[in-house]
Structure formats: structure tokens, C-alpha cells
Amino acid sequence: MRAVFRIGGSVVASPVNTELMSKYVELLKTIKAQGNEVVVVVGGGTLARDFIGIAKNLGLEMQAQDEVAISVSRLFAQLFLKKFGDDACSKVAVTLDEAAECLAEGKIAVMGGLKPGITTDAVAALVAERVNADLLVKGTDQEGIFDKDPRKFADAVKQDQLSFEDLQGVLSETVHKAGIHQIIDPEAVKVLKRRHVKLVVVNGFEPQNILAAVKGEKVGTVVN
Known about the structure:
With 224 residues, this protein is of the alpha/beta class. Helix content is 45%, strand content 16%. The protein contains 9 helices and 9 strands. A 7-stranded mixed beta sheet has the order 3-2-1-4-8-9-7, sandwiched between helices. A two-stranded antiparallel ribbon has the order 5-6. Helix 3 packs antiparallel against helix 4 (62-84) and helix 6 runs parallel beside helix 8. 45% of the residues are buried.
């Protein structure tokens, strides 16, 4: 199986959790050792949003705000890359082609942000499209996808299964903006829907959930 793993900055970087990072690295090494091809896309979390705020206060345009956030996500990606050691390529992939070339070498490809105007969710979707991935797993700060934002509504209900059409109905934001923070980015949904890539959204604070998703076990929310 070829799988892309989107590890939320809200999970490993807000605040920075080196123990959780290490657990993810070991688990992803195991997934690779089981014969799977692995791409990891890491978000910038609170630190990226802090820098977006700083850029905004400096009067910088949205593109510059995005560029700063991308730099932060690539720093976290570099930490993962170094921790993977020889299992990963020598540097963080900064283009879709670089990620594909890394996979072709039999290594784990690691990415942060890609370019202004798209989130790391969209990066994960685009790289899934580029390498013909079978699966995209997103580890987030929620148990899965709810019918409305559980941080705002106490009566929000978790969905076990959704279609991409259903998913577009539960997203509050439908266009990109710097620092967008919701369960899945709207641009990512468009790409995944176009390529029919199966998406599983899980609670990222339990790394074993990504292994369960790869095995096809019932976990989080499945979108296909």
C-alpha cells in the first residue's frame, strides 16, 4: 500500500511534544517495514499561527503570512526527517516531484508546506494524487469528523463514514485563508474527491490509530 500520513501541528506541535513525535517515527518506520510506501506531511500548529499573527501585525500580505507559516512547518518536518535517519531521504521534499523521487528510492518522504495559498492538508492531498496513493490518514486533535464543530457545539455528533459530498456540507470554511484551522481543508477535499483517494481522519494523540487505519480497522471517520 502507498499511504500519505498528515500529522497535525495541533497534535505534535501545540505545544511541541517530542515524545509523541518519537512514537510517530517508530510507528511509521514499522508501517514502512511491513512493505508499505510512506509519505509524511507535517503541520506547523500554533507556532505557525503565531508567526502568521506576527506577519499580519507587521502589515504583511497574505502570501507573506503563508510563506512564514510554511517555513515553520518545514522546521517540524526536518525534525521528523532527522529522527527517521536512513529510513528517510536526505532532505525535506519541497516539491511534489521530490516527494515522488524519494518514494522511488524506497525511502520515507517528509514534507511540510509547499507554497502560499494551500495548507498542509492540501499538500497531503496533492502528494497523494501525485504518487497515486491508496490512502490518506490525517491525525488531528479530534476523534474524527463531526456534523458540526465539537469545539463550539456540545451536541456535535461524530460521523463514522461520509462521502466527499457530505464532507463539503459540514465544513465551515470553504476557501483558503492563512492559518485556516478546521478538520480538513476545503482544497484538499476537492483533490481527494477528484482522485478518489480514501481519507481516514483519526485522533492523532493516539498514534496507534494510524496503524489501525492502514489495517482497515474501524477508527475515526472514513471518507470515500
